[in-house]
Amino acid sequence: MRDISLHANHRRAISAHEIAIEKVFVNRNPDSALKLGQARGAAICGTVEAKAEVFEYATRQIKQAVVGTGNAEKAQVQLMMRNLLRLDGPVPADAADALAAAVCHALRGRAMLLRASLGG
Q1: CA–CA distance, 73 with 84 (Å, rounded to integer)
Q2: CA–CA dist 4, 8 (Å, integer)
Q3: Contact, 54 vs 44, CB < 8 A?
Q4: DSSP label at 118?
Q5: pTM for the full model?
Q6: Could you give the percent of the chain with pLDDT greater than 90?
Q7: 65 phi/psi in degrees, rounded to 5
């Protein structure tokens, strides 16, 4: 029932034309992996129903974009999101991950626009 609620709320919240989401990685805890998969599925369904495009990025790719290394620790991602986005106070790990995916996507979009303007 929680996933249905998540899906409905996410669908209402979509006002963008695209979203960025972290790709699933193999987790040692099967229960956590299952819950994460269900939440991702609900979010992706809501996005597709809103006719928005879904972009998925690997964890290492996101960390590389925002911290400069794909092996960054969670605390480094949190600090970079706080500094890059000029946020007050600590940024929870889950929020930092979501923000980092969005920043990674934005940087990718800017790089593609630059490449197109240079004729490449």
Answers
A1: 17
A2: 6
A3: yes
A4: T
A5: 0.75
A6: 42
A7: -65, -40
